[in-house]
Amino acid sequence: MAEKLHEYQGWAGRLHDVKDRIKTKWETYQENRPPERSWDSIIGNCLGGSDDQTPDYSHIYRKKTRPELFRISSAIMGIEYSYAAETAFVSPTLLKIGVDHAHMTLVWGLSPLVGFCLTPILGSLSDRCRWQLGRRRPFILLLSLGVFFGKF
Questions:
Q1: DSSP conformation class of 50
Q2: What letter does residue 35 receive in the DSSP assignment?
Q3: How far apart are CA 97 and CA 105, in angstroms?
């Protein structure tokens, strides 16, 4: 009987038949699936808790006080002022030393590109560093000297 129906409906009828079968399977899946679990309950189970208790993250995260928020905002404001000063002063300096307008975007893009490539390498090297000064201090000192003498 179904074959005869498909003859009359053509490819559109077959498409609707497939759609109806998928819809039926989806509805039976929705009825039979287990109840949803939140990420907190999953993490709690992994850490040894049970499903009915909510994990406590108070030892990891706490609300910041107003003075702490002010200090964080002040630090961010200082970083933003530094970026603004860099933008204001570096472009005229690049023009003075003879960089063309067309190449200025390449110069601006060079710094993030070098940072993107060198940061993992320097981080890996500093992780393996066994100097008496520590792991990070030798790199900070050497790179600071490079920046200082690069100004001349």
A1: -
A2: P
A3: 15
Number of residues assigned to the chain: 152
Q: Is residue 110 part of a domain?
A: yes
| DSSP per residue, 61-87 | --PPPHHHHHHHHHHHHHHHHHHHHHH
Rounded to two decimals, the pTM is 0.40
Distance (Å, rounded) from C-alpha 152 to C-alpha 149?
6
Give per-residue pLDDT as tens, 42-57: 666 665 555 556 666 6
Tokens 């933003």 found at: 80
The type of residue at 108 is W
**What is the residue range of 30's domain?**
2-46
92 lies in the same domain as 105: no
Query: Which pLDDT tens digit goes with each residue over 64-111?
Result: 889 999 999 999 999 899 888 888 888 888 888 888 888 888 888 888
Characterize 101-116 residue by residue with b for buried, 16 or more Cβ atoms within 10 angstroms of its Cβ, and e for exposed.
eeeeeeeeeeeeeeee
- Helical segments of 33-65, H only: 39-46
Identify whether residues 42 and 9 lie together within a single domain.
yes
